[in-house]
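Field reference: sequence -> structure
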Amino acid sequence: MNSFLHAIKQHTKTTFAIQQFPIAMIINVFLGISFAFVMPYNSLFAIDEVGMSNKTFGIFMLISSICGIVFSTYIAKLSDRLPNRGFILAMCAIAGAVGYLGFAFSRNFYVLLFVSSLFLGISSSTFSQVFAIGREILGRSTVPSSQIPLYMNILRTIFALSWTLGPAIAAFVLLYLGFTGLFVVAATCNVIVAIISLLFLKSRQESQMAKTSQANIPLTKIVFQPFIFLNLLAFTFISVANTLSTMNMAQFVTKELGGTEKDIGIIFSIPPVFEIPFMLGFGYLATKIISDKLIRLGVFIACIYFILLSFAAETWHIFIVQILSAAYISITSGVAITYFQDFLPQMPGTATNLYSNSNKVGSMIGFVLFGFIADGFGYRSVYFACAVFAIVAFTLLLALIKMKRAKFDTVQARQVS
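Structure field:
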């Protein structure tokens, strides 16, 4: 244990010595805060402030998510071909600032739908671009390739830390400044991200661009490679389970278990406490064993977590199993980023966006399924459905053990393009 803590301490110190990596970390702080200010209060804003119905809000989120996938996919491919990824990140952040200002000062459904679909759709690429930049920075540093997963997890931990602290600060802002103040702060964070990106992130070298331009493979050729496609399916199913679980928790606790709002607060507060040490720990493990094994472990833990939730009889049962939630999320949202980037090492923007889009597609499916499952079979059945999705994801990952990863060499790239 002491050697593990010493290693984490040394690697954490090293992150500040890697040229430009601290800049990516600072960007992630502000990006994480902007996400944390907006995401927990989306439904409250739409339903209570704007006056949308549950059904209308679902349609609103569905259209916005589809636009986000379309924009982020195009931007990811573009960023892998252009020399200055920092400029692209800055433009996406500016779009986010415009979008959040629209939310701050408008309460018209159609205006908000336009702003969300266009500007926030474009800004949805910021997450993928930051981690693509982080991967590029590590790639041109002296960090051994075997240790890259750990440093990427440190970058992911910074995002998680911001998200852990953000909602509490957001609640204070919402109390005194309302939704206008909430979205103005989120917009300001995006402006800061844009300024830092433009001033401090360097363009890639010509030698790096030569490799990247040769990896100009059509997206369909990438997505439908059997190894990548099955991984995308597996992570989509995990995202479906995550979304269903999150949407269902409050209803399950209050209506099935007789819990209170205080219980819900405790339940959602437990995972962040454990996610940060778990992310560092699993990031360290990723330097010792191949990521495939860790990914399977994470999804297996998810299976156990959802099965236990479906049999929970008291709220304190959920308190305990939330530790498992922190464990599997730390892997499927931490190590998984490097895992996907390893599929296409010369296309980190596209690779990270594939991971991000699998989450978005899973969320959309979860939005649609929740009402049908909860209304038709009850809130407890939602967790049985989560367990089924997780088991299917785990089965797909097991099927990949003997399958070789798809590799794209420069000859293939020239032939396809």
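Note: The two ends are 50 Å apart (CA to CA).
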